[in-house]
Write a structure and sequence with these properties.
With 371 residues, the protein is of the alpha/beta class. The chain has a 6-stranded mixed sheet, with helices on one face. The chain is elongated and about 90 Å long.
């Protein structure tokens, strides 16, 4: 028996901190990866797909988005989708789940109650759907007493787990040994956005499309195979995400070409589908820092999204650098005054960084004038 374990599509996630084009592309990618999940199930002859919550990012998603999600699932008539609420799209969104029940295609099963769902002759799915965003108790406890006969037992849950013996997880957490406690062959979890193995029989599927710079494992779904009741599952991690989110931190030193160092740190291929948050550290001379800033400005056009933070790059000023701003006069006096303020002695690091940025800007303006 083979099935796809997915979760946390978060369709409709707003991505409010990004420009309009980036927001639109990231939203479209989340619907595309739902389609890619169906294609995977179809191509690998999976018996069904389980979605362990948070298909939508909110309990009241746009009507058009709901229809598009249903249309995607309907376009794979040979694939059965078992769809459970999560904390973002919990059963508190009554209008949403009533509409899904009314409009869902024949190949979609809504796991909206703590009742056994039988798939074919050999599989029983035991869902633990969140009734509200934070139910306040362990919704998976009922699985231990569920009568499923000789069927393969697959638990379906959404929420966090704690370590063995931990007492600080709260009542809403899922025991990490729930699969063993409830005699499950597999526990399909959602909520954590990185793929993670909890035990021999429990996994988080992670988000199928990445959504931030947290450094999770490759975004995707899990392909799970179980030969028979009681046999250990075989889990294959399948990457499906279209976009890469990369946080890159690089240290710079005076005398080395910062532009070359930047290029070596950035990915060479796949730039159209890469979102990069670049953080510079270390120290550079004024002219070197100006070259780095210019290279970062050019990189914005090379990537789908590029953001550079050079606040931690200290400025190592030299007399030659100040001469490039002005050798005498009021401008030279201003440059020397700002230069003195870049020292952290007697001032905060933030004030020193502000002075460094001001001196870099003054240097850049002076170079534009001379050109």
């Amino acid at each position: 028996m083979r099935f796809v374990h997915a979760a946390d599509f978060h369709l409709g996630k707003p991505f409010g901190n990004y420009d309009e084009d980036t927001r639109a592309a990231l939203k479209a990618a989340r619907l595309n990866v739902l389609r890619a999940t169906g294609e995977l199930a179809e191509s690998r002859c999976a018996d069904f797909v389980v979605i362990a919550g948070d298909t939508f990012d909110a309990e009241a998603p746009p009507s058009r988005l709901v229809k598009r999600a249903l249309d995607v699932m309907a376009s794979f008539p040979g694939v059965t989708w078992v769809w459970m609420p999560g904390n973002h799209d919990s059963l508190a969104g009554v209008d949403l789940w009533e509409r899904l029940e009314r409009d869902k295609p024949a190949n979609v099963i809504l796991a909206t109650s703590a009742d056994v769902i039988e798939i074919g002759q050999d599989v029983a799915i035991l869902p633990a759907p969140p009734s509200v965003k934070a139910p306040g108790y362990d919704l998976t406890e009922w699985m231990g007493t569920a009568d499923t006969g000789s069927r393969i037992r697959i638990g379906l849950a959404h929420g966090g787990v704690t370590d063995f013996g931990s007492e600080d997880g709260g009542l809403a957490t899922i025991p990490p040994d729930r699969a063993e406690k409830s005699d499950l062959d597999y526990l399909a979890l959602g909520d954590w956005h990185g793929q993670m193995r909890i035990g021999a029989r429990a996994w988080y599927a992670g988000a199928p499309e990445a959504e931030g710079f947290k450094g999770h494992n490759a975004a995707g779904v899990l392909l799970v195979e179980i030969d028979a009741r009681g046999n250990a599952p075989r889990v294959e991690q399948v990457a499906l995400g279209q976009y890469q989110w990369l946080r890159i931190e690089t240290e710079f030193f005076p005398g080395n070409d910062p532009v070359n160092i930047l290029e070596e740190a950035l990915p060479v291929t796949g730039r159209d589908y890469a979102l990069v948050r670049f953080v510079g550290t270390g120290r550079l001379g004024l002219s070197e820092l100006a070259s780095l800033r210019e290279a970062c400005d050019k990189a914005e056009d090379e990537f789908h999204f590029f953001e550079a933070n050079l606040m931690k790059v200290g400025v190592e000023q030299t007399v030659d650098d100040l001469n490039l701003i002005a050798q005498a006069g009021a401008l030279r006096v201003a440059a020397e005054s700002i230069f003195a303020a870049t020292s952290i002695e007697g001032r905060t690091e933030e004030d020193a960084q502000t002075a460094q940025m001001a001196l870099s800007h003054l240097f850049h303006l002076a170079q534009e004038v001379t050109q």
